[in-house]
Amino acid sequence: MNGKLVVFNHPLMHHKLSLIRDERTGTKDFRQTVSEIGTLMAYEVTRELPTKKILIKTPCGIAESYTLAKEVVIVPILRAGLGMVDGITALIPTAKVGHIGLYRDEVTMEPHQYYAKFPSIIKDAVVLIVDPMLATGGSVAKAIDIIKQTGATDISYVGIVAAPEGIKRIRESHPDVNIFVAVIDEKLNSNGYIVPGLGDCGDRLYGTK
């Protein structure tokens, strides 16, 4: 089954995106806004989560209600992906969190793994891979490869800004994975950065440059 590509069109998301694009936005406001975008995106990303029917005893009787049928596992790609985790768990506090550490070779621009740790229930869970920027798509494609090795099959990527090149790579290498982004930008530059983008998201989140 082919995954879907969803580009959000929400006024609040566009407003907050303008804040994190602005080069004058400081670390505190940048970090807070990225987290807020994560919450807004989580609401839409989880719209079709599977549910199961349950009966609840209320003060006035018995109500037929619903609860999530599968666990949710959030997997940020270190380090920028961490910036969206708190925003998503604010909406899904029962979600478990795994981590994938990747670094990009500055010459080949290909990703290399240095860390991976996941909750034991990941195989049967809804997995949300989180990374704000989808540039070349190499890191996200590698993360999907790693997660599929656990046996997980219900996988989505959740990001903020994407380049057409990154979208194309994920659609070709993992056509079964859903892609959720706030915006698709123009292109990549010669250094593999998204144009116009918002710069290096990790550096802006943590004030390291």
Which structural traits does this protein have?
209 residues, 3-stranded parallel beta sheet, single chain, alpha/beta, globular, 31% strand, 8-stranded mixed beta sheet
SSE blueprint and pairings:
Elements: E1 5-7, H1 11-21, H2 27-45, E2 51-58, E3 61-68, E4 72-78, H3 82-91, E5 96-97, E6 99-104, E7 111-117, E8 126-130, E9 133-134, H4 138-148, E10 154-158, E11 161-162, H5 164-173, E12 178-181, E13 183-184, E14 187-188, E15 194-195, H6 201-206
Parallel strand pairs: 1-12, 4-5, 4-6, 4-8, 8-10, 9-11, 10-12, 11-13
Antiparallel strand pairs: 2-3, 6-7, 14-15
Helix pairs in contact: 1-2, 2-3
Helical segment tally? 6
Give me the secondary-structure category.
Answer: alpha/beta
Strand content: 25-35%
Let me know the largest β-sheet.
8 strands, mixed
Radius of gyration from the CA trace? 18 Å
Number of DSSP strand runs: 15
Oligomer kind: single chain
The string of secondary-structure elements, in order, is: EHHEEEHEEEEEHEEHEEEEH
* Average pLDDT metric: 93
Helical content stands at 25-40%
3D shape: globular
User: How far is it from the N-terminal to the C-terminal residue, by CA?
Assistant: 42 Å
Residue runs with pLDDT of under 50 for 5 or more positions:
none
